Amino acid sequence: MVGYLFLNKIGAWGHRLVVYLVVISILFFIGLALFKKLSNSSKILVALIGLGLASDIVARFIAAATRYSTPGYHLYIPLQYFLLALFYGIHLKKYGLWFSYSPLLMLVLAILNTIYFQSIWAIPSNMVLICSLSYIIYALITFNYLLNNVSEVSLLKSDLFWSNAITLAYFTCTFFCWSFYNFFVKKKINTTLIADIIYYANHIYYLTLGMAIIMNSRKKKNVK
To answer: What is the pLDDT of residues 116-148, one digit of tens each?
Structure first.
């Protein structure tokens, strides 16, 4: 979800955006190369990286045509939620019913938000905050699961630990950045620092997901 803030800062195809897209592209193609070796949950992470790459590329073309990068993100957010719900549904089977139906709930909320509160020409920050809070809760529940199901293998060698840890850290950062961003815009305070934080947080997020994917590819095949 880096696109909007950085578009305001450096333009539709600035050098930082190009670097960002190159990094994500490399990670995505690594994931595709390893795809057959991955567990189902790690395949979802590859799809998540691909979705992030596609959404930011599409956003640039929309921005070139309309001067706004926001319309694509109204679709991206419920799609991202769908993939993360699939990911956590695999590991948190106790909450399978919730993960099966909550994507539909988020889609309905996203549509209502677009119609009544934040049009396609506005960043859907309400949905960013709702979904980020949801991911934080899912990550905390997963950590509880990991701590209660300790294996002989160190958690630091677990791809789930790393993918879950970066999800918790990234969406906590996202939640607070967007909370402050809305306040800064209302008070006409410069948002450069927030844009920079989100830019680098995106790099760390995708690089860590890439690392988790590579770790998973080196494990014996399993169903998760």
So the answer is: 999 999 989 999 999 999 999 999 999 999 998
Please, what is the end-to-end C-alpha distance for the chain in angstroms? Answer: 27
Residue type, position 170, single letter: Y
If one counts every other C-beta atom within 10 angstroms of the C-beta of residue 9, the result is 16
pLDDT in tens, 143-186: 999 998 877 778 899 999 999 999 999 999 999 999 888 788 78
Q: What's 37's DSSP letter? A: G
Q: Quick check: 20 and 53 in contact, CB under 8 A?
A: no
The per-residue DSSP string of 200-218 comes to HHHHHHHHHHHHHHHHHHT
Cα→Cα distances 129→34, 64, 110, 174, 181, Å? 33, 27, 12, 8, 11
CB-CB contact of 157 with 215 (8 Å): yes
Q: DSSP label at 221?
A: P
Q: Rounded to whole angstroms, how far apart are CA atoms 194 and 215?
A: 31
Count of alpha carbons within 13 angstroms of residue 32, beta-carbon side? 8
Q: How far is the C-alpha of 42 from the C-alpha of 24, rounded, in Å?
A: 16
Q: Round to whole Å and give the CA distance between 15 and 38.
A: 33
